[in-house]
Design a protein that fits this description.
This protein has about 525 residues and is α/β, with parallel strands linked by helices. It has helices at about 20-35, 75-90, 95-115, 115-125, 130-155, 190-200, 215-225, 240-250, 265-275, 305-315, 335-350, 370-385, 415, 435-440, 455-465, and strands at about 40, 40-45, 45-50, 55-60, 60-70, 165-175, 175-180, 205, 235, 255-260, 285-290, 295-300, 325-330, 385-390, 395, 400, 405, 425-430, 450, 470-475, 510-515. It is globular and about 70 Å long. The structure holds nicotinamide-adenine-dinucleotide.
Length: about 525
């Protein structure tokens, strides 16, 4: 079997200025709305399981809309799912890589086929604008296409230095059972990337979507079933995140944990996974991608208009709920006021409302906890700095919060140090570029960062000393593309796994060195 693949290229975004695309999206939104309240099962060993206890996924922009009803699985279901994945590993790990990659390519084709529908699911389930949902889906397709190709590259004997009297080679073999624990904020892209990287390398997994995005997770599972993925390779469970997640992490049959989410949960998982149980025969591998407090630095040589546009897009796209979102602007004092004014003006132009309406730039934040947290930090920001724009809740229909700019905050203030994960950006004044860079590096995180400058020496300095996993020069700090900007953070932003990069799959493999005397 050969797949004859073209070179990987990124999936193009949908052009919503084309009338026909808008009509297709409207039709898809209507279809998704007609399916509200429908119920979806757990999937363990290919069996669709329903339970007495249910849970719901609500539209954050309209809290009356239940986008889907799900089963409230327990730790016992996590147990069954892990046992199934363990039993399936012996057969799946022997399936040729080319066949495993084939399932990803078929799933990518299916996602392309259902593009508008799957984007519409994300619009309703997590409050992504049309463009953000379309970008999420394009990234999911990219992960599938890219990891399929990457697996073929890593398949078969890898070169080693020849040695007289021996025939030597190295092969990559899978690890075993993986616990896949994604966040809700890229409900298709991250979930699909984290799951398919693990299975294309020959592992089997238990996938537990975040409670806020179970419907999108379900559609990924449905697509993997529809392309004929053997049962038991991905086992899909829903329920309380901490209950299921901790059983998955602590189980002695779990070989690795692929986690993306908050710093606190990531650190807890790292700690739990490090503790060996008596039956356990390996050191668990933890891949953890966590939060950020990402800064855009602007110096006095920068194109201020372009910087202001980049800041507003990076701070408020998807309501600031991206790990890469700009939550700090650090500007040198000579351009600070001009930049702040431009950012304030552009922020006031943003339309906030239910995102099934194409004209909305921003929807609601994900849930009540998030609303409470963002409003609490806005309160703190008012004390620590000067509220320039926004600062209030906008409507009771959903968790709508006005895009908020707080100026004149100190770089060590809470609003400049803690991840808020909402539409709030803090402005910090620096006396010069050196101080700006020092401030940029002053949080425990190190995920993304950007510098707007025309000074070559400073751009070079940032390349060397701006300590982030993803650095952007003269462009915004969000919008990483698969294999264009491999993604992952330094420090407490994570293990720098570089999702969508050429080293990523190695994390789900171990090398076996084979030497034969001849
Ligand atoms: P979260 O940490 O609350 O949840 C992430 C996942 O962990 C969910 O599936 C959740 O159910 C599960 N979980 C919760 N408690 C658990 C426990 N005790 N044991 C095991 N699993 C548990 O994060 P979130 O709110 O879903 O996502 C937002 C966070 O994710 C932000 O901090 C954001 O910066 C981060 N994020 C990081 C990246 C990245 O690539 N670095 C990408 C997206 C999001």
């Amino acid at each position: 079997m050969s797949l004859n693949l073209e070179v990987f290229k990124n999936e193009p975004f949908t052009d919503f200025s084309v009338k026909e695309n808008c009509e297709q999206m409207e039709a898809a939104l209507a279809k998704v709305a007609s399916e509200f309240d429908k119920e979806y099962p757990l999937v363990i060993n290919g069996e669709h399981i329903t339970l007495d206890e249910k849970m719901h996924s609500y539209n954050p922009c309209n809290l009356k809309q239940n986008v889907g009803t799900f089963q409230k699985g327990t730790a016992d279901h996590a147990e069954q799912a892990i046992q199934t994945a363990y039993e399936t590993f012996s057969s799946w790990s022997k399936v040729p890589a080319v066949e495993r990659a084939g399932y990803l390519l078929k799933a990518a084709a299916q996602m392309r086929e259902e593009k508008f529908y799957l984007s519409a699911v994300m619009v309703y389930e997590v409050g992504k604008s049309w463009a953000e949902a379309d970008g999420d889906l394009a990234e999911a397709i990219d992960f599938l296409e890219f990891y399929a190709r990457e697996m073929l590259r890593l398949d078969g004997p890898q070169p080693v230095t020849p040695y007289p009297g021996e025939k030597n080679h190295l092969v990559y073999v899978p690890l075993g059972v993986g616990a896949v624990i994604p966040p809700w904020n890229f409900p298709m892209a991250i979930l699909a990337g984290m799951s398919t990287s693990a299975i294309v390398t020959g592992n089997t997994v238990v996938l537990k979507p975040a409670e806020e995005s179970m419907l999108t997770g379900w559609h990924f599972m449905r697509i993997m079933e529809s392309v004929g993925l053997p049962k038991g390779v991905i086992n899909f469970i829903t329920g309380d995140g901490a209950e299921l997640g901790s059983r998955m992490v602590n189980h002695h049959l779990t070989r690795f944990i692929n986690f993306t989410g908050s710093k606190d949960v990531g650190l807890l998982i790292a700690e739990q996974a490090a503790k060996r149980t008596p039956e356990q025969r390996w050191i668990k591998r933890v891949i953890a991608e966590m939060g950020g407090k990402d800064a855009i630095v602007v110096d006095e040589t920068a194109d201020i208009e372009s910087a202001a546009t980049g800041i507003v897009q990076a701070a408020f796209g998807f309501q600031g709920q991206k790990c890469s979102a700009c939550s700090r602007v650090i500007a040198v004092e000579s351009v600070y006021d001009e930049l702040l004014q431009k950012v304030a003006d552009k922020t006031l132009d943003l339309q906030v409302g239910p995102v099934e309406d194409r004209n909305m730039n921003m929807g609601a934040v994900i849930n009540q906890d998030s609303e409470d947290k963002v409003l609490k930090y806005i309160g703190i920001g008012k004390e620590e700095g000067r509220l320039v724009v926004g600062g209030e809740k906008l409507s009771d229909q959903g968790h709508f919060i006005a895009p908020t700019v707080v100026a004149d905050v100190a770089s060590d203030s809470r609003i400049a140090q803690d991840e808020i994960f909402g539409p709030v950006v803090a402005f910090i004044k620096a006396k010069d570029f050196e101080q700006a860079l020092e401030y940029a590096n002053s949080t425990p995180y190190g995920l993304t960062g950007a510098l707007y400058s025309k000074d070559e020496a400073r751009l070079k300095r940032a390349e060397e000393d701006f300590f982030v996993g993803n650095l952007y020069l003269n462009r915004k700090c969000t919008g990483a593309l698969v294999d264009v900007h491999p993604f992952g953070g330094f420090n407490l932003s994570g293990t720098d796994s570089k999702a969508g990069g050429r080293d990523y799959l190695l994390q789900f493999l171990q090398g076996k060195s084979i030497s034969r005397k001849v």
